[in-house]
What does this fold into?
Amino acid sequence: MSESQTHTYLKNHTLSGDALLFDLNEQAASVLKEASGQGSHAARTLIKDGPMRVTMVAFQDGGALHQHKAPGPVSIQVLQGEIEIGVGSSAEQLIAGHCLVLGANVEHSVVAHKQSVILLTIAMT
It folds into this structure.
């Protein structure tokens, strides 16, 4: 897709046309820089359109998100690094290239074992 065919990111995080192209490596570098300035982690919403939410989260080594849940199914894709997702009494170790999918309202926590970037996709119900 050429630059003239792409559409822009709007402040309200919705699509401004039929397609939106992101350079995930550029986004990851930017969010990692934010995380280093904030201490633990930083997040950037890429898309919030209809029932779909796509958010990039960068963690510094040891960064964490305490127990929480989302109102819809969640896909957690690791782009860089290594994280642990705690679900109930078990924990899943994920590295770059892994993707974990959780059902709606499943409580989970996240701990980064090194500097990491994840891409979250939530389908709101």
Summary: The chain has a mean pLDDT of 87. The first strand starts at residue 41 and ends at 49.
